[in-house]
């Protein structure tokens, strides 16, 4: 017969101790099961350290960006404030004013429209212009480049001329004499129609004078970069000359306006 092995009836010490404790206090096992099986209990979830590191890095980058923006805006405000203070000091010390221009006289020696056999119209004109410019400043000197002068009538160019550059001292008046001419300029149909209509006006031919030049301003040891200016003189009316004598245009209501082509002056030593 085969021998059978039966398990020992003895249990280890741990099982015996647990059985003894359960038998001694039966409510302890019930309370433990209720504590771990309670549905309203919030489970413990440990926070990973990588999330804290990422959040800390993002806050640090945001703080650096805000600080950079703050210091940039503050620097710009300080620069603008210093520029405003410097401009105010310059204005109080020198009180700069734009130069003034006026039309002294305009004589129309010739305005002639001729039509060629190919139905093209040519304009020939000659005008004698006298201008005066004044430097109203007491401490600033104006240094002009060559002046370009154009005479127009309702956007139709009548004649062109120029005047050499010059220096205008403080409180100085400079007289400008220039001969404007146009030699056989071909006009389009619209320009011919407009010019013929203006020549028939009772009040005379309306003439506009445009002056373009560059000017540099000097004061003590400082000087500016050259700035473009345009002078527009309107309110001039002239008649077509009859015979060889030039026709004198009316300049009593002429007014000249000076416009800066560049608004910001940059000063250099």
From TrEMBL:
InterPro entries given in the database record: NDR1-like
Gene Ontology terms: biological process: defense response to other organism
Chief location category: membrane
Membrane-spanning intervals of the chain: 64-94
One Gene Ontology cellular component annotation held by this UniProt entry: plasma membrane
Superkingdom: Eukaryota
Protein name: Late embryogenesis abundant protein LEA-2 subgroup domain-containing protein
């Amino acid at each position: 017969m085969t021998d059978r092995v039966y398990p020992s009836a003895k249990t280890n010490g741990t099982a015996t101790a647990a059985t003894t404790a359960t038998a001694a206090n039966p409510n302890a096992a019930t309370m433990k099961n209720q504590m771990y099986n309670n549905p309203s209990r919030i489970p413990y979830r440990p926070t990973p350290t990588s999330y804290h590191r990422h959040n800390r890095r993002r806050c640090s980058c945001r703080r650096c960006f805000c600080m950079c923006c703050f210091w940039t805006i503050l620097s710009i405000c300080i620069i603008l404030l210093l520029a405003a203070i410097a401009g105010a000091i310059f204005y109080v010390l020198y009180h700069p004013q734009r130069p003034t221009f006026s039309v002294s006289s305009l004589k129309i020696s010739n305005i002639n429209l001729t039509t060629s056999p190919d139905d093209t119209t040519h304009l020939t004109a000659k005008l004698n212009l006298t201008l005066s410019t004044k430097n109203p400043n007491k401490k600033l000197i104006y240094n002009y480049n060559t002046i370009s002068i154009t005479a127009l009538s309702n956007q139709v160019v009548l004649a062109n001329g120029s005047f050499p550059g010059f220096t205008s001292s403080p409180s100085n008046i400079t007289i400008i004499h220039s001969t404007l001419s146009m030699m056989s300029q071909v006009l389009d149909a619209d320009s011919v129609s407009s010019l013929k209509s203006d020549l028939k006006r009772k009040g005379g031919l309306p003439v506009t004078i445009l002056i373009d030049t560059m000017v540099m301003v000097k004061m003590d040891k400082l000087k500016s970069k050259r700035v473009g200016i345009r002078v527009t003189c309107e309110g001039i009316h002239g008649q077509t000359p009859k015979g060889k004598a030039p026709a004198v245009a009316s300049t009593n209501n002429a007014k000249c306006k000076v416009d800066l082509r560049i608004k910001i002056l940059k000063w250099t030593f």
